[in-house]
Design a protein that fits this description.
The complex is a heterodimer of chains A (103) and B (296).
Chain A (H helix, E strand, L loop, with lengths): L1 E8 L4 H10 L4 E10 L5 E5 L2 E5 L1 E11 L4 H14 L7 E5 L2 H4 L1
Antiparallel strand pairs in A: 1-5, 1-6, 2-5, 3-4
Chain B lengths: L2 E8 L4 H6 L5 E14 L6 E12 L3 H8 L7 E9 H7 L27 E9 L2 E9 L4 H11 L4 E9 L2 E9 L6 H13 L15 E9 L6 E8 L1 H14 L2 E11 L2 E10 L7 H12 L3
Antiparallel strand pairs in B: 1-3, 1-4, 2-3, 5-6, 6-8, 7-8, 7-11, 9-10, 10-12, 11-12
Classes of the chains: A alpha+beta (103), B alpha+beta (296).
């Protein structure tokens, strides 16, 4: 089994994306809101009239678990999303969940 | 390139201090809210964390963990090896689905890449949820494959239309639902862009999906060009995209096509021209049927 963790812009419609992952063979898909800290990057926003500096951006983290052999199919779904997002890359990582991989 | 994911359980109030103490360069640092409790076996005291920090880094994890574990604010720390997915995306060829017959009776034909040529696309709204796509380009055996790929990527559903060839140009008039992802303007630009690269298979998916609940492929050899009549139920966008991937794989050029939506399925007709060694035969029709149905 493999686990794919990807950090997507909040503009991505998660429900449709989850369905695509399931269609590609994902067994479970979880979505969480996550604050991502970009080194050196900060933006100023106004909250209730008070300006404050924010060092993080809010993103959606997707965790999908799938059988090893379906990695190319799952990768294609992420690749397709990257194309839809105008070719922009987003951080995504694969972890091998098989016990032998960690020994 | 190996990356390590390090999970650190801490408290929200300690977040700033902890982030300031991160050793090395991290690829990504994220924090999310959790409910985490741990019982200290020595003191019997319960420790509660409300935040998990996830660090993806190429730095030696032992070094990062050694440094972070000295901090009071760190309740628990774990590390896992992982790899960037985008490397896999570039390196990996899509795996044929399990249903793809192990022995393929036809040789896969290589694509011929040609130069770019003018193409155009116009998208108009017919009604609230109905869009018409009118596209043309120089003759291109991947013309429909490109269009169906972009339509599927935006989760649009093709409700009808036709494709034809006049002289040295390919034309398509398609009726679809409105794009779920992205805008019509974006789609128009993408279609023009992809059609201008005549013959180029760049970014086109080659995977054949088993998306049919039922399928029947019939050969009509009565006209000048042999035709495949495809009746299928299931995920219509995926069926059409997979069909185009099969045509591309076996170097079959769709000269004329008509697309119709019937209840929960499609009834399409494709007039095919043989570009390689694969002839349009009854045997090929059965092979396509079997491939798309996963041998059901």
């Amino acid at each position: 089994m493999i686990k794919i963790e990807a950090f997507l812009p909040t503009s991505v419609q998660i429900t449709e994306f989850e369905e695509q992952l399931f269609a590609a063979g994902a067994l479970t898909v979880a979505a969480t809101e996550i604050r991502v800290f970009n080194k050196g990057e900060a933006k100023t926003e106004t909250y209730r009239g008070v300006e404050r500096v924010v060092h993080h951006s809010t993103q959606t983290k997707i965790e999908a678990v799938a059988p090893d052999e379906l990695l190319p199919n799952i990768s294609n779904v992420f690749n397709k999303l990257s194309e839809v997002l105008g070719g922009s890359d987003f951080p995504a990582f694969v972890t091998n969940l098989n016990p032998a991989a960690h020994s | 390139m190996e990356i390590h994911k390090i999970e650190v359980y801490t408290q929200q109030k300690e977040l700033t201090r902890l982030l300031g103490n991160l050793p090395g360069e991290a690829n990504l640092v994220g924090a999310l809210d959790v409910h985490f409790q741990q019982r200290n076996l020595r003191s019997g005291e319960n420790l509660a964390a409300d935040t998990r920090i996830e660090i993806f880094t190429e730095t030696d994890p032992a070094e990062v963990m050694a440094q972070l574990s000295t901090l009071d604010a760190v309740f628990d720390i774990q590390s896992y090896p992982c790899q960037p997915l985008l490397t896999d995306v570039k390196a990996a060829e899509p795996t044929p689905p399990p249903s793809d017959p192990a022995v393929q009776p036809y040789a896969v034909q290589p694509h011929v890449t040609r130069i770019s040529a003018p193409a155009s696309c116009r998208i108009s709204e017919v009604s609230d949820n109905t869009t018409r796509i009118t596209a043309q380009s120089s003759v291109d055996s991947l013309f429909l494959h490109k269009l169906f790929h972009l339509i599927a990527a935006r989760e649009m559903s093709l409700t009808g239309g036709r494709k034809y060839r006049q002289g040295d140009k390919d034309f398509a008039i398609l009726t679809t639902t409105a794009p779920v992802i992205g805008s019509s303007q974006g789609l128009q630009a993408d279609i023009t862009d992809i059609l201008e690269n005549v013959g180029s298979p760049l970014h086109l998916p080659t995977a054949i999906h088993v998306a049919c609940d039922e399928i029947a492929v019939r050969l009509d050899a009565g006209s000048n060009l042999p035709a495949l009549i495809v009746r299928a139920a299931g995920d219509t966008a995926l069926i059409r995209q997979s069909l185009q991937a099969l045509f591309s794989r076996y170097a079959l050029d769709v000269v004329i096509a008509r697309f119709t939506l019937r209840e929960n399925g499609i009834e399409d007709i494709y007039y095919l021209k043989q570009l390689g060694d694969t002839a349009v035969t009854e045997q090929l029709a059965r092979f396509f049927e079997q491939t798309l149905s996963g041998g059901k």
